[in-house]
Amino acid sequence: MDNVLIVDDNQVLIKLIVTKLKKFKDRFDVITAANGEEAITILNNHTISLLVTDLNMPKIDGMQLLIHKNQNFPQIPCIIMTAHSTQKIKKRLQHEVINYIEKKESHYIDELVKAIFNALEEDIPVGTLRGISIASFLQMIEMEQKTCLFEIYSPEKPKGVFYFEEGVLYDAVYGSNKGVDAALKMIQLDSLKINFRKHPNKIFKRRINVDLIALIMEAMRLKDEFSEQMPDDREKKSDQDTPDIQVSVEEESCFDQSDFGKDISETFFDEIKALKGYRAIGVIKYNGEVLACNSVDNLIDFNNLDNAFNDLFIALDDINQKTGLMRMEESFYITDSGIMVIISMEMPSNELIFIIAIFEDSGNRGMIKLTLKKIADQIRKIQNEV
Fold first, then answer.
1. Contacts 24+ apart (CB under 8 A), 119-127
2. In the predicted model, is pLDDT for residue 12 greater than 70?
3. DSSP 23
4. Sign of CA dihedral 56, 57, 60, 66
5. Residue 28: pLDDT above 70?
6. Rounded mean pLDDT, 349-355
7. Is residue 247 part of a domain?
8. Is residue 248 part of a domain?
């Protein structure tokens, strides 16, 4: 007998649905859960034929539950319930979920019962995968007006992050790609592991100012275009920049990055490079974007560490919030083989900039700290002159 798992924190609704489904008790059993946490435990311990879930729930919400299903039980079909309008994404989700039901409709419980029965009657070939695409997750984040980091992981490719503020896509980072370019590349990816993470209490400067649907449609067009090319053409195309699309993108910084980076590299780094044990230095934004860097160590490439530094800054923020500490101003990391010193500075635009220096263990911590503070003062001077 089939098992239908229904997940919703509204217990009145759960009872109504269960009552409506009693007439089918000889066809399937109903299992209920009040949130995603309970549902994951059930999925891990029972054979489930169909998942029905709300999106907005406490503890672990519906989208996190769908991620768990995608990565561990991709063969289980699902029905999604939401209190928000679904017209924009209902059509796109028709091949990824059995049904998408809007709770605002007066007859939605009857519609849900019908959808459950039809789903169990549907002849789905064994082994069929019901994975939900990254594009659909992005649209659900927008619809549910979530504030979060939406992370993606793809084999042998860089980690990527989408930054959402109340359902608005503010920014995206994927390797060395930022903003619109990063978003376009990530939306096209398949075979992903994905994750939601709490958004830090930090206002990001918006680099993406385009309708999400337009962005997704452009990414799908590029993907289709790429898939139709011959292998040789694909290789050439992959080396080219992502084609421009007609969007309005705000400046990502309040100063000219190219000139700023050039000035720092040629002028500001000389004093710290002269210190004993110098290995590398970078000037990095909170989101991991590298404004300028220099290294005499082949092992240290700041441009390939941007996501790692972003993770570090977010973790530091989280620790500071939970311990009641103020924002980190300076930090020392001492290991058997070296020293890393981080100095943070807040710009007039409220944007955080970090200066990171890496030295061998022979480096003088006092001199490193003093020199970094000089560099910070020079950066502030440039900022005030712009």
1. 119/50, 119/77, 119/79, 120/2, 120/4, 120/27, 120/28, 120/49, 120/50, 122/77, 122/98, 124/77, 127/75
2. yes
3. G
4. negative
5. yes
6. 79
7. no
8. no
Instruction: Judge if 205 and 162 occupy the same domain.
Output: yes
187 and 143, same structural domain? yes
Domain membership of residue 251 (yes or no) is no
Question: How far is CA 31 from its chain centroid?
Answer: 31
Domain span at residue 275 reads: 257-385
CB 283 within 8 A of CB 382: no
Strand partners, 222: none
Tens digits of residue pLDDT in 101-117: 877 666 788 888 888 88
In this structure, are 229 and 171 located in the same domain?
A: yes
Q: Please tell me whether residue 292 adopts helix, strand or coil conformation.
A: strand
Closest to 112 measured CA to CA, from 120, 70, 341, 133: 120
Same domain assignment for residues 309 and 231:
no
225: confidence class by pLDDT, cuts 50, 70, 90? confident
Across 29-43, 266-280, 362-376, least confident range? 266-280
Q: CB 360: neighbour CB atoms within 10 A?
A: 13
Q: Can you name the residues that pair with 344 across neighbouring β-strands?
A: 354
Same domain flag for 126 and 139: no
Give residue 124's pLDDT: 54
Mean pLDDT for 202-212 is: 77
Measuring CA to CA, how many Å separate 96 from each of 72, 123, 197, 303, 329? 16, 15, 23, 36, 46
* Same-domain status, 126 and 6: yes
In a domain, 84, yes or no: yes
Same domain, 115 and 47: yes
Total number of domains in the chain: 3
Distance CA 210, CA 202 (A): 21
CATH of the domain at 9: 3.40.50.2300
CATH at 337:
3.30.450.30
Question: What whole-number percentage of the chain has pLDDT above 90?
Answer: 18
CB–CB of 299/305 below 8 Å?
no
Neighbours of 308 (CB within 10 A): 12
* More confident: 346 or 33: 33
